[in-house]
Amino acid sequence: MTTILVLDDSAPMLMSLTRILKNAGYDVETAANGKLGMSKLAGGLKPSVILTDLNMPEMDGIEFIKGARKSPATRFTPIIVLTTESSAKGRDDARAAGATGWLTKPTEPAELLSTVKRLLPTHG
Amino acid sequence: MNPGDDDRLVLAILAAQVAAVRERIENSETIDLMWRTTDVLARLAGLVPELARRNPGADMERQCTAAIGNMTDISKSLDDMAFVQAQRQDFTRQMADCVATALARLAAPGSGETSRFSADDLSKLYVCAEQREIHETTIRAARQAS
């Protein structure tokens, strides 16, 4: 099954994303911040796609993306940023760190799922 | 109390109150209720085929099929609504975070004549375009009024 790693510091967001993605047939792993996300990757998790918020405590989304890009296992994994931030600078920073896609909250479930599907390595 | 201490106390109280509002936003039961309803509907949809099996007949089968379809549609709509609601809630929570952080900094000892917390400092806390728009609108209005 295709696994998606989801990072968000909001518990309702994590739960909601999990439900939407699981209903669409994906396996979901979650982390409440970048540091916990990095721990999951260090523990051997190899997600097909990563979905991350930017503004999180402990380690924010930009630092997480940079860290994930240093790991051979996730160097080329699609990383989608899902955030309230909509500024061009925010997008540029995320892209420079290694983000592949960008969604601004609030987004519709259909848009989220089509973005995930589009970026999956097998277009699954 | 020294001059300014009372102001800082008021700011600290306001910061705590905004933090309490933030907690209420984070712990809103609306989304949880949507998920619980969705889960109940899914369980009911799972029981409907058993109802049709125990009461065979074309009409019953048609009604059960329609009921399952309706429950599935409603479940999906509720999950979608909960997703959008969770994002709006997250948005509001982050705006409350910003206000609480700014008030706490203004209330901190030493934040007075010697170390001001400026509008520029405040803008560095923003996490979305709406905050920046409010910021700009407020500054324009203040300049026009002065």
Primary descriptors:
heterodimer, A: 124 residues, alpha/beta, Rossmann fold, five-stranded parallel β-sheet, 5 helices, 43% helix, B: 146 residues, mainly alpha, 82% helix, 0% strand, elongated
Brief description of this entry?
The complex is a heterodimer of chains A (124) and B (146). Chain A has 124 residues and is α/β, with parallel strands linked by helices.
* Global shape of chain A: globular
What would CATH call the class of chain A? Alpha Beta
- What structural category characterises the helix and strand content of chain B? mainly alpha
Within the CATH hierarchy, at the fold level, what is the topology of chain A?
A: Rossmann fold
Distance between the termini of chain B: 32 Å
Secondary structure: helix percent of chain B? over 70%
Could you give me the name of the CATH homologous superfamily of chain A? Response regulator
Q: What's the SSE pattern of chain A?
A: EHEHEHEHEH
Choose one word for the global shape of chain B. Answer: elongated
Q: Unreliable stretches of chain A, pLDDT < 50, 5 or more residues?
A: none
The major sheet of chain B is characterized as: none
Count of structural domains of chain B: 1
Distance between the termini of chain A: 10 Å
Quaternary status: heterodimer
Describe the structure.
The complex is a heterodimer of chains A (124) and B (146). Chain A has 124 residues and is α/β, with parallel strands linked by helices. Chain A has a single domain, classed as Response regulator (Rossmann fold), CATH 3.40.50.2300. Helix content of chain A is 43%, strand content 19%. Chain A has a 5-stranded parallel sheet, with helices on both faces. In chain A, strand 1 (3-7), helix 1 (11-23) and strand 2 form a beta-alpha-beta unit. In chain A, helix 2 packs parallel to helix 3. The radius of gyration of chain A is 13 Å and the shape is globular. Chain A starts with a strand and ends in a 5-residue tail after the last helix. By secondary structure, chain B is mainly alpha-helical. Chain B is 82% helix and 0% strand. In chain B, helix 1 runs antiparallel to helix 3 (58-107) and helix 2 (30-54) packs antiparallel against helix 3 (58-107). In chain B, 16% of the residues are buried. The interface between A and B is medium-sized, with 24 and 23 residues.
